[in-house]
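We emphasize that the prediction below concerns an isolated chain of 438 residues; any contacts that depend on oligomerization or on bound cofactors are therefore not represented. The input was used exactly as deposited, without trimming of termini.
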Amino acid sequence: MSEIKNTFKDWCLKNFEKYENNLNGEKKYPVHDYRKKSIKYLTTLDFPSIKNEEWKYTNVAFLNKENFSFSLEKADYSFDHISKFLFDNLEHSLITFVNGYHIQNLSKLLDIPEGVEILSLSEVIKQNHPLVQKFLGKVAENSNNFFTSLNSSFITDGAFIQVPNNKIIEEPIHIIYYNNSGTSKNIIQPRNLIIVGKNAQVTIIEHYVSDTETEYFTNSVTEIFVDENGILDHIKLQEESFKSIHIGRMDISQNRNSNFRSHLISTGAKFSRNEFNSRFDGEYAESTLNGLFMITGEQLFDAHTLIDHSKPHCNSYEHYKGILQGNSKGVFNGKVMVRQDAQKTNAFQENNTILLSDSAVMNTKPQLEIFADDVKCSHGATVGKLNEEAKFYLKTRGIGDEAATAMLIHAFASDVITSIKIEALRDYLEKIISRKFN
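Result of the prediction step, given as a token string:
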């Protein structure tokens, strides 16, 4: 490995040896070969900088000045720490991770059909599970992505969900990542693997939370495979410490006639970047990406999305909305690629942002790259303040200024909230919006 310097990259390379020594007997499992391949690849990658177009508005140079530590041991927390983040009195299945490690006594599975597997990734790694060997790392490619390679180098734990062919799970599966690093600045690197079989259906909530303003760095990767006629609703909810860093990546591979719906709701983290990469590997599939980010103070939120139409007769719909206050900064970079053979593609993309202060900044860049001729594609973006005419109308009806603002914000956010099918979760999100703006 290269000479150790005072940079985040070299610190990671140095700590891989320490991490590897703590694996003990786990080095014998096949996944460790993938770790070693990933750390070797990491040595060839440049640390992201604003000179890179993909990171032009999102500067991660501050990581070179941080002093992080890897969380190597399980922490002991009670159910009280996570109960406030449940939205229906635990009427759904729950799998809980604390500082990146699965905690069995804080997890609960309800009415799981036969053949469905909801386990921790660390457990299935020890089982030499054939699906881990078949799918892990196959869609979240390390190519030119520094933080994905970092996650792959230190794979330890996360959620493993496998829904076999023809199985339907009625109630959602709730994954909670509770983080509290105390006085140490932990790096927490969840790795989730979700496999939905033919004609199968499931709803999964990926929930990142903290109830203390501690400093930590979450670097998560979620890999999703949806087979023919499979249906997956995925909700990612970020309620994290305002001192934390969150870099997340989700990669989706969709087969013929499959349907994938994503909903991202983000309110927490000092620095948050979410990358979504969706690829059609079969015809007549459909993908929906909805997002709502509400940030304030000095927060930064960055959404980078790529929808790859590599097969014909596929539809994609993407709509991200942002509400910015204070000195916050938002970034949206959405790309829809329609390849030459992807005829009869239908793709829609839009980003709308409301700025509630003069010092908030939004950088938006919707993109279309079309190499086919028989397609219907559109994209657009708007950035502005609340509609003053609508606000004036409400005030003339005796509604105060703050209440009028709150009503208009609720109306603006409702498109994303109402697209979520779980009523209890919609109510939970409505309360979050009310706390922020009422």
